[in-house]
Design a protein that fits this description.
The protein is built from 15 helices and 13 strands. It is an alpha/beta fold and 399 residues long. The chain starts with a helix and ends in a 6-residue tail after the last helix.
């Protein structure tokens, strides 16, 4: 076959314009790969070339999926293992871009204390569910801003989330909330990992997002966290405020030079993180996809391996969120479970979604907490009753 006849298929720009083809154009391309591989029984050593040449995936996407497949294929699924996720939607202030925090503590001081009491009630209910169902808690994950609370409140909450053998992770929105006293409390209750939701290391971008800290604040907090023996993770955003390849390279190099155990790269294609706004210019789409392509090879160059993936903005053509780990011992199993929904998760707080996973029958059941804080606080007793009934009726043994 003449070389010119296959040139259009291997055209770089074509792949940038359509990186996720066919059934891979979805929220979880890894799940589709697992189904496809089981059906067609493609040898793992031939998977990259098959995805690239036969299914017309971009080479980077094919390698990325294969790397994740090689890692996750070794995970043993156990329906008695569960995750516990807790949302703390309060902060001393709300940054312009924040999707985790919904309320300022100072503005909602009357509701704030009621929320803490309601959350402790739900956490006690979660513990009852875990005991009745003989669940083994493998991961506890705090979203929002636990460290924005006072020290005694942090301790009260952690008392209700302490489980033997569980890996506990705390997400931190602002490094200004990190103090030695609070870290000692986390250490006391077995917290293993601190996730810095920094988004970028660029001070100009941080100011545009109305973030009230700079890189020096992040560095000082990170140094303290490392000195106390915590594992670390950085959440960074690709394409944030039109940041180009040079800034992304700087972000990745800083994160890797600091020695973070995990680095999560999230794709946000629109200014000011408004994912509901669809990109219409082809050059904008191509620009983001080039950044995603660059980030994968740059992370591999630095010795990091991808271990989870899920896509956002399906209508834009999909842009992958990928988690990277420095070696096999530092993956965050919760993020794998959450991306592919392969383990039961009990979620507490506003905007929390619990789900039961039955891998034997390949079925899932969902339960959503209310979004509004007043509905959550004043309806907590009814919520707990419904939630306990949900887990009882949809148990593993009843299906």
């Amino acid at each position: 076959m003449p070389r010119r006849s296959i040139k259009p298929i291997l055209n770089e720009r074509m792949f940038y314009n359509c990186p996720w083809t066919g059934f891979f154009h979805c929220k979880s391309p890894y799940d589709e790969l697992v189904k496809y591989q089981k059906t067609n029984k493609i040898p793992v050593e031939k998977l990259v070339n098959h995805l690239h040449f036969d299914l017309k995936l971009d080479r980077q996407k094919a390698e990325l999926l294969t790397d994740i497949y090689n890692f996750q294929d070794t995970i043993v699924k156990n329906d008695q293992e569960v995750n516990l996720m807790i949302n703390l939607p309060f902060c001393l202030w709300r940054c312009f871009n924040c999707t985790r925090v919904m309320y300022d503590k100072t503005k909602y001081s009357d509701v704030y204390l009621y929320y803490i009491d309601a959350l402790k009630k739900e956490l006690k209910s979660a513990k009852n569910i875990i005991q009745k169902k003989c669940y083994l808690v493998q991961n506890v994950y705090f979203t929002g801003n636990l460290l924005a609370l006072d020290s005694f409140q942090i301790e009260d909450i952690l008392k209700n989330t302490s489980y033997a053998f569980s890996n506990t992770t705390v997400e931190v929105g602002s490094p200004l909330f990190i103090t030695k006293e609070k870290l000692e409390i986390l250490k006391k209750f077995g917290v293993k990992k601190i996730v810095f939701n920094s988004l970028t290391f660029n001070t100009v971008s941080l100011r545009q997002l109305c973030r009230r800290f700079e890189f020096k604040d992040l560095y000082n907090a990170y140094t303290l966290v490392i000195s106390m023996g915590f594992e670390t993770c950085f959440d960074l955003v690709i394409g944030l405020l039109d940041e180009k390849e040079l800034q992304l390279k700087r972000n990745i190099e800083l994160a890797t030079d600091l020695g973070a155990n995990n680095i999560n790269l999230y794709a946000r294609t629109c200014k000011y993180l408004k994912p509901e706004k669809i990109l219409t210019k082809e050059e904008d789409l191509v620009s983001i996809r080039k950044l995603l392509n660059f980030s994968y090879y740059k992370m591999k160059e630095k010795g990091y391996v991808p271990y989870f993936i899920y896509n956002t903005e399906i209508e834009n053509g999909c842009f992958e969120n990928v988690g990277y780990s420095i070696n096999d011992s530092f993956q965050n199993k919760f993020l794998i479970d959450h991306a592919s929904e392969i383990s039961t998760t009990i979620s507490c707080g506003t905007l929390a979604e619990s789900f039961i996973v039955n891998n034997l029958t390949n079925s899932k059941f969902y339960f959503k907490n209310p979004y509004d804080i007043s509905q959550y606080v004043f309806g907590i007793d009814e919520l707990i009753q419904k939630k306990e009934k949900f887990f009882l009726e949809n148990s593993l043994h009843n299906n």
